[in-house]
Amino acid sequence: xxxxxxxxxxxxxxxxxxxxxxxxxxxxxxxxxxxxxxxxxxxxxxxxxxxxxxxxxxxxxxxxxxxxxxxxxxxxxxxxxxxxxxxxxxxxxxxxxxxxxxxxxxxxxxxxxxxxxxxxxxxxxxxxxxxxxxxxxxxxxxxxxxxxxxxxxxxxxxxxxxxxxxxxxxxxxxxxxxxxxxxxxxxxxxxxxxxxxxxxxxxxxxxxxxxxxxxxxxxxxxxxxxxxxxxxxxxxxxxxxxxxxxxxxxxxxxxxxxxxxxxxxxxxxxxxxxxxxxxxxxxxxxxxxxxxxxxxxxxxxxxxxxxxxxxxxxxxxxxxxxxxxxxxxxxxxxxxxxxxxxxxxxxxxxxxxx
Length: 354
Prior knowledge:
- By secondary structure, this protein is mainly β.
- The chain has two domains: 31-132, Immunoglobulin-like (Sandwich); 141-180 and 228-353, no CATH class.
- The protein has helices spanning 76-82, 208-211, 230-235, 244-252; strands spanning 31-40, 47-56, 62-70, 84-92, 95-102, 110-119, 122-125, 129-132, 141-142, 149-151, 186-188, 197-199, 239-240, 254-261, 264-271, 280-284, 288-290, 295-297, 302-310, 318-327, 332-342, 352-353.
- Strands 3, 4, 6, 7 and 8 form a five-stranded antiparallel sheet that branches. Strands 9-10-22-13 form a four-stranded antiparallel sheet.
- The longest helix has 9 residues, at 244-252.
- It is elongated and about 100 Å long.
């Protein structure tokens, strides 16, 4: 008998790989580096702040650049707590440079700043750097070669020929046509002698019996306090109202001419100081606001500009000012610095910078 071989069949399982493992890949960590770059184009009032960011693995399409700036806080923690924040614009998710321009800095002042980048709810800082603005007038001021810089335009004005706002002496809110409230430092009395108004601030001691209406003794203040100086309150920093002495200095060192500038009548003062003969200031004939009538008077004919000094010669209910008029059939022009302007009249203010 012939034997036949036995055949056995075993299944063969072939495992074929179809690509990557099905387990999820761990997300890559966000990498951000921020560099504070040196400031550029530094002048007496302007500087450009610069920063640079390196970014990897960001979820967002872009980040935001910022700068923290201060004239006293010199470390990162202080800058974060006390510094002013300025936007530096969008930064691509791959990184790049960003910048910010500042146009209202003070001359001869050291500023500290740091760049930061914010992306995916994360803020990263660079190193703290500093720069110092150069000597010179701040933005909006003219160097006439005198002891202070003079503003190019009136308080509340947008340009040289704009009248700006009208202020009573010692008030920091402008007077408007519809305002009917009384002057801040006057009170009325039943005693008509020498007038039925008394003073509650800025009164010499020797005027107590005639003019004082406040509590206790007269304050004997002859110059505005900082909180009553409209230019200092509104503009801040080293801006303030000029003193009568500074108005005298201006007039004594300038030619003073009645003119029409860009279609607006007023006075132009041109410096006679050597090296500054190019510098000039235009004071528009903005008139004055008379509180009793609550209207404007003398536009195009006169101008009144408050100083910070009380009038102790004419009447303590007045303050000293720079005043000019043109009148009569022959257009007689007159100007000067002195008293006689009632405190509750609305005059213009031309700020100065110390």
